[in-house]
Structures are given as structure tokens and as C-alpha cells.
Design a protein that fits this description.
The chain is an alpha/beta fold. The chain is about 30% helix and about 10% strand. α4 packs parallel to α6 and α6 packs across α7. The longest helix has 22 residues. The termini are far apart.
Length: about 350
């Protein structure tokens, strides 16, 4: 008798693909839909974990777009604190795809948020990038000029990028009640003042994420019809939850919804690929060995394992070849969400 489960490749069976092999030697766990060629211009955005991906593309000699580069005079060790060199623009961490869509809407002039400045102790902060300017801007005029330049440069990403890499981070977030514009952090944590009459907690559903991602793909391809997309999911659990649930349950919900949504999108679009960074770190066969002792941040060994798995499927350009990933210091990451830990009792 013949049936579909007969004579499948080893990667299709749990015993031969997982339980009988080392977690460090999983074969065929990533089979890319398309190759990332040496001439492809790559843009990247997302949650904190995406900073590793951006860094690796640059170090390995790929054509990585940076539309807001740091001034040459600025010392390299200071750049990350000012949101420079982390991604393809100075937009800081983007934790949800709705935040990503709305950033491009603001750049195109189709979205006008209720607030565009937070003043605190005589300094001025961008509500949508509260951590990119340590201690804020000196004046409202300085802030407005920086935001105008930033949004003008953001638009060039859609024009130039052949590949847009986005790392989905969270389903939880905060938004203006007035029009639903999403913020990267809860007001009052990094900057601003929390007002329950102005801001509300949101927890994006599977439908929200799928629809928002479709909107982003349509928006990008309206400018660049040939753009391709690479989606990943951060394996880093929530630092804290405002859902009222235990943080472990809330984190499991968040990552499960994201994984289901991205899997559906990767099946739906030929030009959308999924890389299993989440599974390589957070799935139970990994035995939590790639997490630091806090069971949240990914260890340098874990980062190296994820990056080497990805780039082994995408041969490096001849120029700028640097070999396998060296261990990265997780303290190098700029992550506003981590501040939530300090508010716990």
C-alpha cells in the first residue's frame, strides 16, 4: 500500500530529524525560497533581535542599506546609543508590523498622529523614537527638523530595497485612543507621561498581524514591484506583560500568534520567505541552552548558531568575506523593552 507518508526525506520525521540528532546539527531546517545575491540591496528593521541580523549582513559584505548613516566624525562606540547603525534607518526598534506600516504612512503624509513631541524637564522627545536621542533634543525645532529628515529618508528604503528583512517581536503594545497610532513603548517608561485617557493597551490578533503585513507588502510593492521579503520572529520572551496574564502565558501567546501569522504569509506569497530563528533558539529540543541564565536574552553562542545557520544557506559575497559569526555581546543591543524589568517589585 502506498501513501503520502511513505519514503519522505529524513527531515519529515521527528525521530530522524530531531530526537536522534544533536540540536547543533539539524539538517534542512532552513530551505530558502530564494537566494540573497551579492547585488541585492537589503533593508532591515524589527525588534531588538533584528540588530544581530543587520550587523551580520554588513560584516559579511552584503549590500546593506543605511539611509541615515552616522557622521564619520562620531566615535563608533557612541553610535548605537543614538540609534545609528542599528538598522537601515534611524527608526529604532519596531516591535510590531503595524508600527512599521504607520511609520511609512507618516513618511508618505497619510497619517498625522495626535502627538509628535513629548516635553520632559526642558528636553524634547520623539514619541515614535523615544530612545534614539539620549536626554532628548534641545528644542522642539531641533526635534521637528530631525523627524522631517528621518521620514524623508525612510521613503528611500522602499525605492531602493530589493529585500526587506523584518523581525516580528511582540503582539502587545500601546496606542493613541484617538486614532490607533501605535507607539514603540508605553508612555512614561522611556519618555513621556502616561495618561489612561489618551493611551490604551493593544494586543494584536492573528488577523491583525496578517492584515497589517499584507498592507505593508502592498505598500512596498506599489513603490517597488519586485521587492522580496524575509520574515523572522524574535526568540526573546516578553520582559513584562500588561495583559493581566502570567508573563509566561502572555509570552507564549504572543510568539504563537506571530509564528502562525508569519507561516500563513510565507505560504501565501511567493516572494516572502521565513527563517526559523525562533525555532533554533526557543523550541524545546534546544533545551534552553541558547538562553542566558535569565532564560530571556539569547546568549552569544545562541546568536552565533542562528546567524551561521542562516548564512550557510546564503553564500557570502566574495568581497568582505569574514567567515562564521563570532560571539556577540548581548549587552551591545539597544532594547527599550528591557527597561520594563526595572519597574517590577
Amino acid at each position: 500500500m502506498s501513501h503520502p507518508y511513505q519514503d519522505l526525506p529524513a527531515s519529515a520525521y521527528w525521530r530522524s530529524a530531531v530526537s536522534n540528532v544533536s540540536p547543533l546539527e539539524l539538517a534542512d531546517i532552513y530551505q530558502p525560497k530564494f537566494r540573497i545575491g551579492p547585488r541585492m540591496q537589503i533593508a532591515a528593521a524589527g525588534s531588538c533581535f533584528a540588530q544581530h541580523i543587520s550587523r551580520e549582513f554588513k560584516q559579511r559584505g552584503f549590500r546593506f542599506l543605511d539611509v541615515e548613516p552616522a557622521p564619520a566624525i562620531m566615535p563608533a562606540e557612541q553610535r548605537a546609543a543614538f540609534g545609528l547603525g542599528l538598522y537601515s534607518g534611524r527608526f529604532g526598534n519596531i516591535y510590531s508590523v503595524r508600527q512599521l506600516v504607520q511609520m511609512f504612512e507618516r513618511a508618505q503624509g497619510t497619517r498625522k498622529p495626535p502627538e509628535t513631541c513629548w516635553e520632559q524637564d526642558g528636553r524634547f522627545y520623539d514619541p515614535f523614537r523615544p530612545a534614539i536621542q539620549p536626554n532628548g533634543f534641545a528644542s522642539r525645532e531641533e526635534l521637528d527638523q530631525d523627524v522631517a529628515w528621518h521620514l524623508s529618508q525612510v521613503l528611500t528604503l522602499l525605492e531602493k530595497a530589493d529585500l526587506f528583512v523584518f523581525t516580528f517581536g511582540l503582539t502587545e503594545g500601546w496606542a493613541f485612543k484617538e486614532d490607533g497610532t501605535v507607539l514603540p513603548t508605553c508612555p512614561g517608561t522611556v519618555a513621556g507621561t502616561f495618561d489612561p485617557d489618551k493611551y490604551e493597551f493593544v494586543n494584536f490578533t492573528h488577523r491583525d498581524i496578517v492584515n497589517d503585513t499584507r498592507t505593508f507588502i502592498q505598500m512596498a510593492r506599489a513603490v517597488n514591484p519586485r521587492m522580496r521579503f524575509l520574515f523572522t520572529i524574535s526568540p526573546v520572551p516578553l520582559t513584562a506583560t500588561a495583559s493581566g496574564k502570567h508573563v509566561l502565558v502572555a509570552s507564549s501567546y504572543s510568539k504563537s500568534v506571530l509564528r502562525a501569522a508569519v507561516g500563513m504569509l510565507a505560504d501565501e506569497f511567493a516572494g516572502v520567505d521565513y527563517f526559523p530563528s525562533y525555532e533554533l533558539v526557543a523550541s524545546h529540543p534546544m533545551r534552553a541552552m541558547f538562553f542566558d541564565p535569565n532564560l530571556r536574552t539569547v546568549s552569544p553562542v545562541g546568536v552565533g548558531h542562528v546567524m551561521n545557520t542562516f548564512f550557510s544557506a546564503h553564500p557570502q559575497p566574495r568581497k568582505g568575506r569574514k567567515g562564521k559569526t563570532k560571539e556577540a555581546d548581548p549587552e551591545d543591543l539597544v532594547c527599550e523593552e528591557a527597561i520594563l524589568e526595572t519597574f517590577g517589585k
